[in-house]
Design a protein that fits this description.
single chain; alpha/beta; six-stranded parallel sheet
Length: about 350
C-alpha cells in the first residue's frame, strides 16, 4: 500500500488515502516518487475545467526512482532516476507522423485506464494525466518514463516534466524568440517563471513580467525580467511605453483568461506574435474585429506542452541547468507534503507564489 491524494469526484476535496498498486505488467514501470509539482492543470482537472475520469490520483509533473520494470522494458532499470512524461507520443497518429508529437491524438489514452485500487474498499482508480504523481509510488507505461540526465537534482527534476518544458518550448518552439527581441510574459507562476528564464536564455533584451500580484516582482526579476507591470486596464499601454511605444515582439500568456489573452495580443507591436499557454474554460471567449486583424498583422497561436518533444528537449534543458543558465530551484516557492496540495490549489487561485513542490 502507498499513500496518495485521491480526487473522489469532480469538484470534491482531495482525500489522502492508501491505495494498492499492482506489480508492473509488460511495458510498465513502477516508480517511487521523489517529488511532484503542483500545476494549474491539476487544479483545472479537480474543478472540472478539464475533464478526467474519476476517482483519480492527479499529479503529472514528477520525478523519482525506478522500483521495478515489467517485461519488455529495456531503457530503464531498477534504481535509475527518471522523469515522468505525462503526454507520451504514440508515433503513429497523423500528428506524430508530421513530427508534431505534442499534438498526439493518443497521448492521454492511458488516463481512462484503471491503474490502482483504493485499499479501503477495492474501488477502481484512474491515473489522472497518465502518471498519477500525487502518490508515494506509481505504475506507468514505459513510454511515460524518461531517464534523468546526469547532474540534475532528483527533486528539482520534477519541474522538467511540465512547467519547464512548457515555458522553454513556448519561447523556443512556439514563439521562436530570437536574440535581441522583446518579450512580455503574462502570469508569474511556475510556467511563467520558466518562460521568463527561457526568454533570457534566448537572448531577449527586454522581458516584461505581468501579474496581478505586486509581491511577485522579486521572483520575476530574479528569473530575468527587466521590467514588472502589475496587471490593470492600462497594462497594454504600459508595455508599449516600455518599448518605445511599439509593443513587444512576443507576448506569452500563461493564465488562460480571455481578458489576459486579449491584453497580451494588444501588447505586441504591429506584426507581433502572441503565444497562449494558459488553459482557459469554454466560457472564456476572446473577440477581435476583422479590421484590426488586418491592420495589426499580428499572430495569435496556441501552445500545447510547449510544442515540445520531451525526449529531445529534456537533455537540452539539462545542459542549461548544468551550465547555470536555468535555475530549477528558484521556481519553487513552497515545499509541501501530500496533505498540502489543497493549500497549494488555494494559493494558485489567490495568485500567490511560484511552484509548490510535493516532497516525498
Amino acid at each position: 500500500m502507498v499513500r496518495a491524494a485521491v480526487l473522489p469526484a469532480v469538484g470534491a476535496p482531495l482525500e489522502i488515502a492508501e491505495i494498492d498498486l499492482p506489480d508492473p505488467g509488460p511495458g510498465q514501470v513502477r516508480i517511487r516518487l521523489a517529488a511532484a509539482g503542483v500545476c494549474h492543470s491539476d487544479l483545472s482537472l479537480s474543478n472540472g475545467t478539464m475533464r478526467v475520469p474519476v476517482p483519480a490520483v492527479l499529479g503529472h509533473e514528477g520525478a523519482g526512482t525506478v522500483v521495478a520494470v515489467g517485461e519488455g522494458v529495456t531503457h530503464v532499470a531498477p534504481g535509475d532516476p527518471v522523469i515522468l512524461n505525462w503526454a507520451p507520443s504514440c508515433g503513429t497518429c497523423h500528428a506524430c507522423t508530421l513530427g508534431e508529437v505534442w499534438l498526439c491524438a493518443n497521448a492521454l489514452n492511458g488516463a481512462a485506464d484503471v491503474y490502482a485500487y483504493r485499499s479501503s474498499d477495492g474501488s477502481d482508480l484512474h491515473p489522472g494525466l497518465n502518471v498519477a504523481a500525487f502518490a508515494e509510488e506509481t505504475v506507468v507505461a514505459a513510454s511515460c518514463v524518461l531517464p534523468l540526465p546526469e547532474g540534475i537534482p532528483l527533486t528539482d527534476a520534477a519541474l522538467l516534466g511540465c512547467a519547464v518544458l512548457t515555458g522553454y518550448g513556448a519561447i523556443h518552439h512556439a514563439a521562436q524568440v530570437r536574440e535581441g527581441e522583446t518579450v512580455a510574459v503574462f502570469g508569474v507562476g511556475g510556467v511563467g517563471l520558466s518562460t521568463i528564464q527561457s526568454a533570457r536564455i534566448a537572448g531577449a533584451t527586454t522581458i516584461v513580467a505581468v501579474d496581478v500580484s505586486p509581491e511577485k516582482e522579486e521572483l520575476a526579476r530574479a528569473a530575468g525580467a527587466t521590467d514588472y507591470v502589475v496587471a490593470s486596464e492600462n497594462t497594454a499601454r504600459e508595455i508599449r511605453t516600455l518599448t518605445g511605444k511599439q509593443g513587444v515582439d512576443v507576448a506569452v500568456e500563461c493564465v488562460g483568461r480571455a481578458v489576459t489573452i486579449r491584453t497580451a495580443w494588444e501588447s505586441t507591436r504591429r506584426g507581433g506574435r502572441t503565444t497562449v499557454v494558459g488553459i482557459g474554460g469554454k466560457d472564456q471567449q476572446v473577440t477581435f474585429n476583422a479590421l484590426e486583424l488586418f491592420h495589426w498583422g499580428r499572430t495569435l497561436s496556441g501552445c500545447v506542452y510547449g510544442n515540445s518533444d520531451p525526449a529531445k528537449d529534456v537533455p537540452v534543458l539539462a545542459e542549461h541547468v548544468r551550465a547555470g543558465r536555468l535555475d530549477l530551484g528558484s521556481l519553487v516557492t513552497e515545499r509541501i507534503a501530500l496533505d498540502g496540495i489543497p493549500g497549494a490549489f488555494e494559493n494558485m487561485v489567490a495568485g500567490k507564489g511560484g511552484r509548490a513542490l510535493v516532497i516525498f
